[in-house]
Amino acid sequence: MRGRIIVEGEAEGYVVKCAKPVVVLGDINEKEGTACGKKIAGKVFVFPRGAGSTVGSYTIYGLRYYGKAPVAMILQEAEPIVAAGAIIAEIPTVDKIDISLLQEGDLVKIKGNVVEVISSHPQK
Questions:
Q1: Most-buried pick from 59, 71, 113, 116 (CB within 10 A)?
Q2: Does the residue 124 lie in any domain?
Q3: 123 band by pLDDT with thresholds 50, 70 and 90
Q4: Within a domain: residue 12?
Q5: Would you say 40 and 29 are in contact if contact means Cβ atoms under 8 Å apart?
Q6: Which CATH number characterizes residue 111's domain?
Q7: Which domain holds residue 91?
Q8: Residue 19: how many CA atoms within 13 Å on its side-chain side?
Q9: Cα–Cα distance for residue pair 61/119, rounded to 1 Å
Q10: How much is the average pLDDT of 98-102?
């Protein structure tokens, strides 16, 4: 799959997916590295889009600050809050991806604007 680069980079990891838009300030806990009640630290965080106020960008940066950042983020649409947060946190991020093709536990590799599913077997 090819998308649009928000933050250039390479990453590989297991997908953790939120099916609904993420209210960044309320759905992400930067100190614990969780979102939507799931651990995203060290994973590839997949969600449709962000929502909420501009302070949400700093919540994403907080994930990096506390050492709890995902290795990458993949979105349907990265609106300015998520894009700014990804940039300041230096988290490889790609949008314009059909996230319905990615399932919880898929092993994926991101290189630039390319997202490749390496293994579609859910992580046990």
A1: 59
A2: no
A3: low
A4: yes
A5: no
A6: 3.50.30.10
A7: 4-119
A8: 3
A9: 29
A10: 96
Residue 16 covered by a domain: yes
User: pTM to 2 decimals?
Assistant: 0.94
Cα gap 62→89, rounded to integer Å: 8
Q: Annotated catalytic residue: which of 53, 100, 119, 120?
A: 53
pLDDT for 102 beyond 80: yes
Confidence of residue 36 (pLDDT cuts 50, 70, 90): very high
Contact 114, 72 (CB under 8 A): no
> Does the annotation mark 53 as catalytic?
yes
Q: What confidence score (pLDDT) does residue 6 get?
A: 97
Domain count, the chain: 1
CA 85 to chain CA centroid, Å, is: 11
DSSP assignments along the chain, one per residue? -B-EEEE--EEEEEEEE-SS-EEHHHHEETTTTEETTEE-TTSEEEES-EES-TTHHHHHHHHHHTT---SEEEES---HHHHHHHHHHT--EEES--GGG--TT-EEEEETTEEEEEE-SPP-
